[in-house]
Amino acid sequence: MSQAPTSQAPADPATFSCQACGACCAYSAEWPRFSTEDDADIARIPVSYVDDPAGRMRCEGERCSALDGRIGERVACKVYAVRPEVCRTCEPGDPECLIARRHHGLPV
Question: Which of the two ends of the chain, N or C, has the fewest CB atoms closer than 10 A to its terminal CB?
Fold first, then answer.
């Protein structure tokens, strides 16, 4: 006998922990783009993490090279104090967060 699929209640964004997620930092190589940073802001980011020709953070596939750890378990940003503005404005539960979490199969 087959069972009907169970519906899962939506996750509460208030419970999302960026340090246990990291999905937004591994969603798209196009996402960690510099948009409002001036040259001085970009110069504070270690050059090994900057993709100058593309105007963004260097990525390994879709994942930002400054992201350390395992998506959905425990992560940290190696350049947190000098991260780009787009990274600073991403908030737990905002539309970008939810898109990235879905992409990685994390609860939303």
Answer: N
